[in-house]
Design brief:
The chain is of the alpha/beta class. The protein is built from 12 helices and 9 strands. Helix 4 packs parallel to helix 5.
Length: 291
């Protein structure tokens, strides 16, 4: 394969659209598909070819990158893509799918003669747009060099964890990382909600921890969003709730109680019920109050 490859991006939401744009900017032949066509159509201005079906998108593709809502959605899209898939193509699976979805994906890849690479990413809208995602990957050594130009277009670093994508090593690490991200998000939102309830200026809280071991850039960034009332989506409440449930399910399957993740899932569910599902996950702040 040449450095510039034919890449099909399946799923053009916040993350997929940003990844597709960066692939276009680096000279790849990009074709895109989204279940909601209006989310894919703007990418034509960036040089992507907008397909009307998954099969059309993947026809002739060296690499198929899936970045959709969850595991069932990824599996459904790839099953629909079947007539256009080329044996030997690389399936770069970047959706956060949990642990149970990996086996049926790997089996579909085997049936279709695809090389399956489990490659979820860490990062939200801003690092996705700037091509600075961290890619967690598991897949055979033979595809790592051919994939380098694709991975370099969307990420700042790739951490290879295993030779076999079917082990789910990358997706398991992604759940561990997301458990920390979601705990920080919910903790920040809840602390600021308590400050409001107790009539404490939240800026005093931030000043109290500033520069010390309890401080972190994430706390400051998410607090700033809440204080400004800016819930522009980087990672939505709905998607965060889905990931929290995947974390709880994975823990239960392996004998680990995930009490914080379970409580976080309920907070995200409550915020979604209040009408904040499409807002940034910091809108879990509203779950502390009656709608």
């Amino acid at each position: 394969m040449a450095d510039q490859l034919a890449v099909a991006v399946i799923g053009t939401g916040i993350m997929g659209a940003a990844m597709a744009r960066n692939l276009c900017r680096t000279g790849h032949d990009v074709r895109v598909w989204n279940r909601t066509p209006a989310k894919a159509e703007p990418l034509a201005a960036d040089g992507a070819r907008v397909a009307t079906t998954p099969a059309e998108a993947v026809t002739g593709a060296d690499v198929v990158l899936t970045m959709v809502y969850d595991g069932p959605a990824a599996l459904e899209a790839m099953e629909a893509a079947g007539p256009g898939l080329s044996p030997g193509a690389i399936w770069l699976q970047s959706t956060t799918v949990g642990t149970e979805a990996i086996a049926p994906m790997a089996e579909l890849a085997r049936q279709r003669g695809l090389v399956f690479v489990d490659a979820p990413v860490l990062g939200t809208r801003t690092p996705a747009e700037s091509g600075r995602l961290l890619i967690l990957a598991a897949g055979p050594e033979k595809v790592r060099a051919p994939l380098a130009s694709v991975l370099d277009a969307v990420g700042s670093r790739t951490v290879w964890l295993a030779e076999d994508g079917a082990t789910g090593a990358a997706s398991r690490l992604k759940l561990v990382c997301n458990s920390w991200v979601l705990a920080l998000t919910a903790g920040t939102a809840e602390a600021l909600a308590l400050a409001k309830g107790l009539d404490v200026d939240p800026r005093y809280f931030l000043e109290a921890v500033s520069g010390g071991p309890l401080d972190c850039g994430y706390l400051q960034a998410k607090s700033d969003s809440i204080l400004k009332g800016d819930y522009s989506p980087n990672f939505t409440v709905t998607t965060a709730g889905k990931d929290a449930r995947l974390i709880v399910e994975a823990g239960e399957a392996h004998g680990v109680r995930m009490d914080l993740a379970e409580a976080g899932a309920e907070r995200f569910r409550r915020a979604e019920t209040q009408g904040h599902g499409d807002e940034d996950m910091t809108a879990t702040y509203f779950a502390s109050f009656d709608a």
